[in-house]
């Protein structure tokens, strides 16, 4: 059943069996953990809909569903090919797989961008935060955005085919075809699928950190919320760049600078990093969210511990909370 597409791989590419064994193992871990973590996020939101159903978590659910589909449908196909040491499936499966994974990848980037923008509004413009209805609209727009980036190859702008690793399919980064205008399509993907989201995400989180620091200066004392959120924001940006920047740089180098790699690791590692985002997205965006932390603590607690924590809290709260404290508390709960 092994496909003849293997003949289309780059000549001279060193493809040792050990690299494919490593790729199969990594893809297996990505599939298992990606499926488990994202399923846990989905079930947590569904079970705690009364407290977790808010705009940011609606977008998080949208991302978790997409990442779950990648783990369940996409990873097994690539892992099978890694075990075989060559693309195992037919050309039609290659094209469909490439379109599916491209759509899901850009949907994930779109969701991350929307979440960054929502948090930007939450902290910097607390009176203009998004409603759940707005989140539904943005959720639909994320898929429109992803499809607008992934469908052009079906209309002869760009091309899908084997990746350099020879076990996965995506946009044919190395093709220089005047008929499909692959160069302009890849430029289009880089600008709107990577560069614009990076600018929005980085700009949003920079504004969040700056706003929280200004609040700290006005109050005149440090705040643990600002420190924790600063660290979390830095982790989010680093994780995003680690996942997608190597892949984007390699794609641009192949298309515009005619770079060719002589070893399979150079082709495999950027692919595996991009695919691994389905694992740590839910960890970063859910486990660092205080509401999810409390929900999971409640879910995995013993009955005795749960009863102690559900005792009535007799400490009264100050109803005259300042605007500054409101912003900080809302930020803590949502982030």
Give the SSE map.
Layout: H1 17-47, H2 49-52, H3 55-84, H4 91-124, H5 132-150, E1 160-162, E2 169-171, H6 182-219, H7 224-256, H8 264-275, H9 277-287, H10 290-299, H11 303-309, H12 323-334
Helix pairs in contact: 1-3, 1-8, 1-9, 3-4, 3-5, 3-9, 4-5, 4-6, 6-7, 7-8, 7-9
Provide an overview of this structure.
The protein is built from 12 helices and 2 strands, in the order αααααββααααααα. α1 packs parallel to α9 and α6 runs antiparallel to α7. About 7% of the residues have low confidence. The chain has 335 residues and is an all-alpha fold. The protein has a single domain, classed as Rhopdopsin 7-helix transmembrane proteins (Up-down Bundle).
Short description:
The protein is mainly alpha-helical. The protein has twelve helices and two strands.
**Structural class, please?**
mainly alpha
Count of separate structural domains: 1
State the distance separating the first and last CA atoms: 48 Å
Shape: globular
Strand arrangement within the widest β-sheet reads 1-2
CATH T-level topology = Rhopdopsin 7-helix transmembrane proteins
Low-pLDDT residue intervals, each spanning 5 or more residues: 7-13, 312-329
CATH class: Mainly Alpha
CATH architectural arrangement: Up-down Bundle
Essential attributes:
two-stranded antiparallel ribbon, 335 residues, Rhopdopsin 7-helix transmembrane proteins, 72% helix, mainly alpha
């Amino acid at each position: 059943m092994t496909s003849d597409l293997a003949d289309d791989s780059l000549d001279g590419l060193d493809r040792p069996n050990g690299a494919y064994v490593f790729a199969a193992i990594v893809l297996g871990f990505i599939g298992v953990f990606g499926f488990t973590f994202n399923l846990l996020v989905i079930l947590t939101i569904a079970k705690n809909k009364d407290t977790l159903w808010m705009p940011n978590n609606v977008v998080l659910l949208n991302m978790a569903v997409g990442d779950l589909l990648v783990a369940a449908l996409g990873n097994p196909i690539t892992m099978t090919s890694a075990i075989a040491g060559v693309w195992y499936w037919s050309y039609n499966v290659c094209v469909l797989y490439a379109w599916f994974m491209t759509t899901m990848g850009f949907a994930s980037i779109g969701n991350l961008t929307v979440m960054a923008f929502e948090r930007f509004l939450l902290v910097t413009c607390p009176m203009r935060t998004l409603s759940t209805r707005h989140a539904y609209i943005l959720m639909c727009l994320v898929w429109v955005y992803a499809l607008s980036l992934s469908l052009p190859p079906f209309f002869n702008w760009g091309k899908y085919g084997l990746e350099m690793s020879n076990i996965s399919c995506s946009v044919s980064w190395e093709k220089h075809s005047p008929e499909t205008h692959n160069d302009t399509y890849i430029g289009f993907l880089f600008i709107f699928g990577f560069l614009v989201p990076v600018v929005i995400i980085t700009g949003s989180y920079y504004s969040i950190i700056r706003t929280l620091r200004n609040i700290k200066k006005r109050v005149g004392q440090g705040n643990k919320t600002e420190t924790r959120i600063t660290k979390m924001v830095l982790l989010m940006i680093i994780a995003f760049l680690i996942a997608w920047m190597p892949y984007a740089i390699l794609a641009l180098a192949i298309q515009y600078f005619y770079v060719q790699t002589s070893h399979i690791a150079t082709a495999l590692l950027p692919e595996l990093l991009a695919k691994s985002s389905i694992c740590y997205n839910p960890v970063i965006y859910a486990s660092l969210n205080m509401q999810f932390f409390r929900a999971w603590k409640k879910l995995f607690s013993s009955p005795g511990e749960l009863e102690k924590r559900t005792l009535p809290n007799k400490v009264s709260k100050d109803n005259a909370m300042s605007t500054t404290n409101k912003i900080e508390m809302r930020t803590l709960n949502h982030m």
